[in-house]
Design brief:
alpha/beta, four-stranded antiparallel beta sheet, four-stranded parallel beta sheet, flat, Rossmann fold
């Protein structure tokens, strides 16, 4: 198995330090708002690697942190007038729910930064003793980048004029070098107001963002992690600073391999709220999209390629998933005939091997999908030719499809969504019939309440001479009933 290492900028053989155990640390969301689909492009890549490592027989210890104390969470809590934990908890729950919606395997743990303050303090104390940390003019503790000779190896941004490191700001803060970054920040009024201040040898304060991941990774997976993952936006300064502080403290590499996921664009544009193309998983689901289609659209391109996320792509993903479900059902329902064995068993094994080799080659999903579609195409061609199938061929086809899906995580997710949708349609029809009875009894309050309940779920009712008809429409999540002219979803 090979993975592209951002540190050495080359494909490298993956060899865990203590097989069959594999340790992976992935930078998770900052829980000041709902995670958006750009975040989930990265997190789906996490789950893909997690599934593939497990499929290859490794025991995976995969940690994805939750940043619940930083400038954004504190500002949000202060603006809302809430304690920090009370403000961040709904976003933590939403992230875990969205991850489950997209079919993620459970990660080993989701540590919250606020639970590792003592470990962070000890890490800063060690850096201070080693001459890597100092008190700035503002009372905060800073990491002295010049004390670490390897700074900039990961990102190439190690120079004195590195982007975003203003000399003027450095002088105002009393930093020795514009590149130096905060390890421990002196508490301010907002920090104290929301409960984001802790005692330390340097006075009441809170950790710097970069420090948090170093402390959590070291505490949970050891001084050197096999694979460290994140979005490409974290390469600098976050991961560069993680390396500097962790390796200065331990004298050991922070990670054997660094894996970074490229950005996602929406309709060929950068996603932003100002552009109106900012989407969350739950919004897309409430607009009528299948979670499996969202997952398919997010993993369809190679993780190191920029991904363009579009509604047309979601529609194509929905069609592709239906094709896979139809194929599986066809194989399951076809009549079995003893002695009708053909070439499908051997061919299924060959294509499963192609799939595995593609995934071993830096998680090459496009090549892996080519093997999956070859299985479907060749299976359908054989079944078109013969009305029956041998038991061995059927077992091999279904097993190959199941193993591929065990890595991709889409077919079972799509099947579950369709099963739930069927149950949901029955409930909607019962509510429509209850409303009809209420109207007939002139109980218009009940009828209006049922219409409102369905409208809140994106269900529009049309009263026609031949009866009440309903349809699902796509609406922006959480913004009331559908508007006229909304695109219908069957």
């Amino acid at each position: 198995m090979k993975l592209y290492d951002s540190l050495t900028r080359q494909l490298r053989d993956f060899t865990p330090g203590n097989p069959p155990r594999v340790t992976v640390y992935g930078c998770g969301p900052t829980v000041y708002d709902l995670a958006h689909i750009g975040n989930f492009r990265t997190f789906v890549a996490y789950d893909l690697l997690h599934r593939h490592l497990r499929w290859r027989g490794f025991e995976v210890d995969f940690v994805v942190n939750l940043t619940d104390v930083d400038d954004k969470t504190i500002q949000g809590a202060a603006a809302a007038g809430l304690p920090l934990g009370e403000y961040t908890e709904p976003f933590v729950e939403a992230f875990l729910e969205d991850a489950a919606t997209l079919g993620f395997l459970p990660f080993a743990s989701h540590p919250r930064a606020t639970a590792y303050i003592p470990e962070m303090v000890r890490l800063v104390e060690g850096l201070e003793r080693g001459g890597h940390a100092y008190r700035g003019g503002d009372g905060s503790i800073y990491y002295g980048v010049a004390s670490f000779s390897g700074y900039g190896r990961l990102s190439g941004k190690g120079g004195i004029e590195s982007e975003g490191r203003s000399r003027i700001d450095a002088e105002a803060l009393g930093k020795r070098d514009p590149r130096d970054f905060a390890l421990w920040k002196l508490a301010g009024p907002d920090d104290e107001a929301v409960g984001a201040a802790w005692e330390s040898p340097w006075g009441r304060g809170r950790p710097g963002w970069h420090l948090e991941c170093s402390a959590m990774a070291r505490s949970l997976v050891g001084e050197t992690v096999d694979i460290h993952m994140g979005g490409e936006d974290l390469l600098f300064p976050h991961h560069e600073n993680e390396i500097a502080q962790s390796e200065a403290a331990t004298g050991r590499p922070l990670a054997h391999l660094w894996v970074h996921v490229r950005h996602l664009k929406v309709d060929a544009q950068k996603m932003s709220k100002s552009e109106g193309n900012f989407h969350t998983v739950r919004e897309l689901v409430e607009e009528g999209y299948d979670p499996a289609a969202i997952r398919w659209a997010l993993l369809g391109a190679h993780y190191r390629s920029e991904l363009n996320f579009t509604s047309a792509g979601l529609d194509e993903a929905t069609a592709a998933l239906q094709r896979l479900l139809d194929f599986r059902r066809r194989v399951e329902e076809l009549a079995v005939a003893e002695g009708a064995e053909g070439e499908l068993a051997d061919r299924s094994a060959e294509l499963l091997g192609d799939f595995g080799r593609a995934m071993d080659d830096d998680l090459n999903v496009p090549r892996a999908l080519a093997a999956l579609w070859a299985l479907v195409r060749e299976g359908n061609t054989r079944l078109d030719r013969e009305p029956t199938i041998g038991p061995g061929d059927r077992t091999a086809l279904l097993a190959a499809l199941a193993e591929m899906d065990g890595v991709l995580g889409v077919v079972e997710l799509a099947a579950a969504a369709r099963e739930n949708a069927g149950a949901g349609k029955g409930r909607i029809q019962r509510l429509v019939e209850e409303r009809d009875r209420a109207r007939a009894a002139r109980d218009f309050a009940l009828a209006d309440r049922i219409r409102g309940e369905l409208a809140a779920e994106g269900i529009r009712l049309d009263d026609t001479p031949s009866g009440t008809r309903w349809r699902r429409v796509r609406v922006t999540a959480g913004h009331g009933p559908p508007r006229d002219g909304s695109k219908p979803v069957e």
